[in-house]
From TrEMBL:
Signal peptide: none annotated. It comes from Deinococcus aetherius. This is Glyoxalase. PROSITE patterns: VOC (PS51819). Gene3D superfamilies: 2,3-Dihydroxybiphenyl 1,2-Dioxygenase, domain 1. Residues 4-125 form the VOC domain. Pfam families: Glyoxalase (PF00903). It comes from the Bacteria.
Length: 131
């Protein structure tokens, strides 16, 4: 297998709201868009496209999973300067759903929520995983 690209695709009620959130707060740029239907966003340093699809599209397969994609899903970015990112997003008025904390295994993280309920988690390892 030769993988040439990767993406995560999320079903949301308001494509423009989630796409705007990712552009404004995480620096994604439009790669391809169909107004009100889908938005594919990219960042060179992320390694995948972030795609938002309008919930209920008839073309979504398999139909049994065509509902809201946010249940049990985290979009995670490993970053440097986690505390600065936390303060930046709070200052921008982004809803924080899990304040910054550090797990016993060295993962320092926090979670924010976009207008459609998609949870983004930012992480910085303050000790090596498994240490």
């Amino acid at each position: 297998m030769n993988v040439t690209a990767s993406a995560i695709s999320l079903n949301v009620a308001d494509v423009a709201a989630s796409a705007g959130f990712a552009r404004r707060h995480f620096g994604f740029v439009p790669d391809m868009e169909v107004e009100g239907v889908m938005s594919s966003l990219a960042r060179e340093d992320v390694g995948f496209n972030l795609i938002f699809l309008r919930t209920g599209l008839e073309t979504f397969k398999p139909g049994r999973i065509a509902g809201h994609a946010g249940e049990g899903l985290l979009v995670v970015f490993v970053v440097d300067g986690i505390d600065a990112e936390y303060e930046r997003l709070r200052a921008e008025g982004v809803p924080v759903v899990t304040p910054i904390e550090t797990e016993p295994w060295g993962e320092r993280y926090f979670q924010v929520e976009d207008p459609n309920g998609v949870i983004f988690q930012l992480v910085q390892w303050v000790t090596e995983p498994g240490a």
